[in-house]
Amino acid sequence: MANRDSIFAAPIEKLGDFTFDENVAEVFPDMIQRSVPGYSNIISAIGMLAERFASDDSHVYDLGCSLGAATLSMRRHIRAENCHIVAVDNSPAMVERCKLHLSAYRSDTDVEVIEADIRHIDINNASVVVLNFTLQFLSPDDREALLEKIYSGLKPGGILIISEKYSFGDETANDLLIDLHHDFKRANGYSELEISQKRSALENVMRPDSIDCHKQRLNKIGFSSVAVWFQCFNFGSMFAIK
């Protein structure tokens, strides 16, 4: 059973920016399930999409892999021969636990876990690339360059899967979706204090884009097909096919 997330349960006098440190890694499975609507559905579908798009003798990238949930889902589903998964995260605590999780399951699909900044990773011969709630933590100035590098490294017909929290230009809709997300967290046992403190901690480190911004950027880069395939409140996932 996952350790319960209580990081923000008590008042924190000096609330710093949210970081993916040892404390977060310890409770991450519980945190993500109770905080992100539809997370399990997204993870399952990433595996199904990887099964469909992964090709023989290619690379699959999980950029910002955290504890490896998307990597595990893809590894379970991929049927392509000689397919190599590269899972990358810049948090030492996440990488350590990711390796442990992956070692608990046997598979014919090889996985390499790398501790690194995803902006510095070479993308080549890729049939599938996943950014599962990762892009939103990068500086907005770095996002297009990373996506361009991914596009260049994708094989024709390859797929990029991007899961994100979204912002909405319509203020009424945006506020309602934020309120519904907070209701979701309350229903999962988070207190008003936890919701408030975590929101403050994330304010400077997670800056979401709108769905239109994502689509326009991906189309500009050259992807031939871009669509949202899942959305629940202000969270969702889209694919872009080269």
Automatic annotation (TrEMBL):
Organism placement in taxonomy: Bacteria, Pseudomonadati, Pseudomonadota, Gammaproteobacteria, Vibrionales
Subunit structure: Homodimer.
Gene: cmoA
Organism domain of life: Bacteria
EC number(s) on file: 2.1.3.-
Protein name from the UniProt record: Carboxy-S-adenosyl-L-methionine synthase
Species, as recorded: Veronia pacifica
HAMAP family: Cx_SAM_synthase
Catalysed conversion reaction: prephenate + S-adenosyl-L-methionine = carboxy-S-adenosyl-L-methionine + 3-phenylpyruvate + H2O
Family as reported in the entry's similarity comment: Belongs to the class I-like SAM-binding methyltransferase superfamily. Cx-SAM synthase family.
Keywords from the UniProt entry: S-adenosyl-L-methionine, Transferase
Segments forming domain Methyltransferase: 60-158
Binding, S-adenosyl-L-methionine: 39, 64-66, 89-90, 117-118, 132, 199
MF GO annotations: carboxyl- or carbamoyltransferase activity; S-adenosyl-L-methionine binding
Function description: Catalyzes the conversion of S-adenosyl-L-methionine (SAM) to carboxy-S-adenosyl-L-methionine (Cx-SAM).
GO biological process: tRNA wobble uridine modification
